[in-house]
Amino acid sequence: MLPPPPALFAPHSTAFPVPMSKLVIVESPAKAKTISQFLGKGYKVLASYGHVRDLPEKADEIPDAIKDKPWSRFGVDLEGDFTPHYVVPESKKKYVSQLRAAIKDADELLLATDEDREGESISWHLLELLRPKVPVRRIVFHEITPEAIQHALENPRDVNQALVEAQESRRILDRLYGYSLSPVLWRKVQSGLSAGRVQSVAVRLIVEREEERRAFVTSRYWDLEAGFRATTGNFTAGLVRLGDSRLCTGKDFDSTTGKLKSKQAVQLDRDDAQALVDETLASVPWKVTKVEGKPGVQRPAPPFITSTLQQEANRKLGFAAQRTMRAAQNLYEGIDLGGGERVGLITYMRTDSVTLSERALGEAQRQIAKLYGKEYARGPRQYRTKSRNAQEAHEAIRPTDLARRPQDVESYLKPDERRLYELIWKRTLASQMPDAEVLRTSVEISAQSKRGPAVFSASGKKILFPGYLRAYVEGSDDPAADIGDQETILPDLREGQDIGRDGDPHLSGVTPKERTTQPPARYTEASLVKKLEEEGIGRPSTYASIMATIMARGYVFQPAKTKNLVPTFTAMAVVELMRRHFSHYIDLGFTARMEEELDEIATGKLGGRRHLQTFYRGDPKSTDDQTALGLENLIAREQKEIGFPELMLGTDPETGAGVAVRVGRYGPYVARGEGGSGNIASVPPETPPADFTLEHALNLIQKRAEGPRVVGQHPDTGENVYAVHGRFGAYVQLGETPEDKKAPKPKRASLPKGMSESEVDLATAVRLLSLPRELGPHPESGEPVLANVGRYGPYVQHGRDFRSLKDEDDVHTVTLERALELLAQPKGARGGGKSSARTVLRDLGIIDGKQVQVLDGRYGAYVTDGTVNATLPKATAPESLTPEQASELLAAKAGAPKKARKGAKKAAKKATKKAAKKATKKAAKKAAKPKE
Description:
Low-confidence stretches: 1-19, 476-484, 829-837, 897-905, 923-932
Number of strands: 35
Distance between the termini: 92 Å
């Protein structure tokens, strides 16, 4: 390792004057811009724009030297020792050229990429490409502040080869997994699907939760609730014991049969409950038979790590993981605070560590004392990392300066950045505050019944000292308001005390309550990230892209107004195929062991090539069949055995034929028996598999076989009005469908959500066919404002600007004024925090100085840099698009001539013809004129 440089700047200065020329390379222009302001004239800071080399993604990127190899599409030598063949993508060549030119004028190279494995890998690739002849230092920092930069310069190191090997092994492993198994899914399920080492396990978890819901049988039972009034506040108590037996709860039922599985619990029906109401009321006064009070504490949650930040932002802010990480990246790389000051507001956001630096601990105590008083500043707290595969020795995610309060910087931040910074600031401060001290109380009040004492129980909690609750409540939106909400204060009661119809407290009534057991909750992004982390699956830094991929691939959808992740029938089919033939490769334990082995490579305990050899070619010593074979041999063996997966729903009671959901070229469909005419029907998009029954399937088949239903004749035109069940849902149609496919289609209108084609009447159909309604001209553009119903419900439209109608609005009566009011509002959320603006499928980071994203557009996925939009080719999936491909698409689009409108094209054609005719006529006239 090279010796460290001398101290380069005085305390509290913001620049590092150095006479020599030093080249500093970071990943992004934003990070470069922030760091540049801390360094003197002797430094030049450039960005690599992410990875500068990668495995080839397209056929034309494959190096000539390996094009004739059978493994060339992998970009990895599968016949030898798994040597990767890296290429510089076309979009990165100009940046590499800039870096090569800059290194010629430098006398030292400082590699300042991020301090995780990926950052280490980028630094190594830069060394391999640039081959510098000057001294090289690797510097790392977990926050972009003058102090952190100075510390990094004073403590350089070499590139960590073990971390590089671990990252390279991970990249090759993912390539082997995806490129080997995805083609199997294309052939047996649907083209365009993908398999991924972590992605496929995530989909399996979501699918298995849906299968649990499908198998769930609801149970019903009854209990009693007694109400009491007191001057300190009303409270309720529930019946918990009857005689010597306890009352059953939801946990006492078998989820697959619905039957009571505990012999010690009593189950009440409606009649039992009503009889008990009468009996207990007749036994007033009741008696307090037990009073307990126990002091306790509530401890604050640790500071954020990557996974907990994603979970909490999803719970409290409704942010998807990718949205959270995008805002966090901006906060880390630097925000312009005005007056030329640009600084990183938070520490590095990809971390497994919950520790805080001594400086941060001191800052926290000072801020706590200042904001809440000295009694809340009782000294620093340190936490221990519990993550199963915790690795890098980073700090937790925290503000770089806790004195910089959210209200001090909110005017400089975008909405997402502001809300996320406030969350991080509050969580960090709360983690250093004392425990909340509480008094937990419980009372039992007994009445008499024919079956013995009926014991009612109530519990309460009184906050004696709020502690950290003054700053932050986990999973809540407003900590200040929630302190009161967390208290349930019971009146002072004593054992043996009577409670009658009057007095303080007194019985106000007894009510029978029907209860139903609930199926297991579907995963949300927050709970799925938590589960993956608990199982040791994947790295927290990859969870955001995993969530985006499974949504973009059509494996998962989120119903409106929920955060639930619901698998599609495509996901069900893929998981069924993988479980049947490649169970090892979606097994939680196997996948977690792979992560542990990658960690062992990072620490130098395991060789990367040996790990790849075992994974792909097998381990003959293993007692497990699939591990012994390896992925390559397993696919070869299973290829002939793999059938087309289907989800059996049951048997048609009339024909005796089996009914199943299958996945075809155009999506999921139901088939009775062998299918064919009269025995198949499309399944509507976004149908939750757990809620789709045999009855639903047979109903769809019947409706498809019957064809469109004549609702009546339109009062204005006399044409038939049909109710039709189509591939994308039910709709009404005016007139016949022409046999000539090129002929104009008849007018159609979607039915409102929740209405089936069998329910629609003529009046409703006529009203729907009257849409879209023209409400009037927009006061600014003069273009018409329309009201209509679409796939996602009623909306108003001005040009290409859309807004959903609220629950209180009616598409048939909404006025122009109301429409203008809605259109003036910013685009809000549809469903569980899902933006009604274009959904971000992937964030490719900074390319050519601009933020580039893949968005879900009206006509499919497209890539944009905020100025230019380019549609993705049909064969290119959003998650497989590389930054290089994105750059090429944008460049091609930017350089392409703009398409003329249809009318303009006609006019141009006509003008060209006219000009040609005129020129011909003029030439003929000139030729006929005699020469002098």
